[in-house]
Amino acid sequence: MIELGESKRDPYLANLKVGVVVPAAGSGQRMEGKPKPFLQLDGQPVLRHVLNLFLSYSWVKDVVVALPEKQFQEQPFWLKQDPKVQGVLGGATRRDSVWNAIQVLSEDLDLVIVHDGARPLTSQKTILDCVKNASEGPGAVAGIRVVDTLKTTDKANQVLETLDRKGVWRAQTPQVFTYDLLFDAYHKAIQNDWIASDDSIIVKKAGGQVRMVESSGSNFKITVPTDLDLAEAILTRYRF
Fold first, then answer.
1. Percent of residues, the chain, with pLDDT higher than 70
2. How far is CA 139 from CA 1, 92, 106, 112, in A?
């Protein structure tokens, strides 16, 4: 268990050294080919909103962003404004992008936060809850409990069965793990070509433990144009 200290800004986190990995190298196929992290939201790129979620914390030491090739070659000025932030070239998959970023993090970090480059409305409470849970041992994954009725179907969309939604969550980010656990898990994933849609799958497959942390519906990933409209409306109303 990592020992937590005290400070005026972050009373439970002062002794931690935390890195942040932001996979932002997607092609944006659902957004007419525009990478989602670089779409404009409330006057600035979505990715800039994401970075601002973390850069104010004194215990965040490194932020590594996995970028599409064009944005990596021509990195925007705002990506270079904070010395904590560096860009790396993303990979062919999310797994590859996260691995590329992990490899350039400082090796003396206690924890690593992985957060989607198109998930800009995460609350401070969610971030802190995940970090505190991960500091106690297991990995921590933000998510919300499923409230809709779940059904499985065949290829013709005929209903086969209704699933019990008790204990079922929709996983989001941030996902937070100790540096050693995440590095070792991803190293195994690359060696064995494990395919996974999020980090907790890889960590579990490598033998790690993961705990779900209650988040909120506003912590959604911008995936389709209507998501961007919703994010604009939320920012306008609440001024995140």
1. 92
2. 12, 25, 19, 10
